[in-house]
């Protein structure tokens, strides 16, 4: 049961208390005005006549879930806030600034309270609506988890992160630093997509790139953003103890973490992190706000795919701090020659059955060329669903796109490739990766190309068969699987861009 504590009760505090009495949970008001306490008691509201600035008073209390500091006086509220934060470091605190605050007072309130209520905006119902909700409870739990960490936090994105993962990691680092915790935004693999590189470079985002065998000893705790399981598309040890998980994708297996926030209703993990930034009272840095908005736009396909009201709300919250000129620059990067070559090979090598086109492009230099090639095939006349794939080292990477209303690519790729690799994504954008151990044992390029030609048949047949057997446009297909080529991988992909 939620326990709410009100410290001080002035003209703003009284309507807050009235609103709180209508909500489930326990309530206690501590005020230094005897007549007010008697009035509250007469109305069956639990109240104590005590000095809320007295450390001994706070010391004798059990830990509440939420604290409201609501005296009319700025100096009293400031002292109360300082002592409440010292006594309850992990509790969410909403503090009323009072009517005589100077710059020093404002800085003191901002550094200690999760939300500061300015007198000009102190409407009791608005305060309650913004704090006493499930999202507020999430923020309380996240603050508590961060406060338990003794040392440095590693915030890990999925491999080859997309804008949503990058922005979410940077935002969680900001939140960690807000509560005095050192943290780094980390990833394995490469940021090779032109727009993703442009985003990191133009916004000067501070990221740490890990190699597979790099030691993790610098970190005492770990967080996962935009994916939910260690060792699944992040090269972390599968047995790693995870402290925090924040994601918007449906989990494909058990999710272990001290704090877990999985919201399938959100169109992007950046949406969830935007809400946390607001809850923690973090001022929006233009770089972080721009990254978050771009992450939301990419994952929702400019608010047309799996978008929710919370995505629009997050975007409107971020917009005043967003650098629109930087977004324009991010969206117009130079397309490299390697990408153009992959697109050309995809067009040349495509096999089309009715409205479905599949193309193998051979060896990859830049795996992020695949989704761009899949997009180009989708733009061709008579094509509504595409799959493009290529190999790099011992891995085959796949990227799929669709504008057919009766095709769910995420489920289709899972049906086709989860038994021999890892796959997942959205209805109109998905990806997969398959580990091909036999490629690593090939002695020369001709042998690898010969092996890949067999793999092409397997992938093509599996995809067409998965399309044919799921509800959708009938496509003639046949299945000649050669599962001995594949080394099953327990991983999963979060979306097409990270495939």
TrEMBL record:
- DDH domain residues are 155-296
Output the GO biological process annotations, alphabetical, semicolon-separated: potassium ion transport
Q: DHHA1 domain location, by residue?
A: 355-457
Q: Which Gene3D superfamilies match?
A: inorganic pyrophosphatase (n-terminal core), NAD(P)-binding Rossmann-like Domain
Q: Which GO terms describe its molecular function?
A: nucleic acid binding
InterPro entries noted in UniProt: DDH_dom, DHH_sf, DHHA1_dom, NAD(P)-bd_dom_sf, Oligoribo/pAp-PDE_c-di-AMP_PDE, RCK_N
**Domain of life, source organism:** Archaea
What range(s) does the RCK N-terminal domain occupy?
5-97
Q: What is this protein called?
A: DHH family phosphoesterase
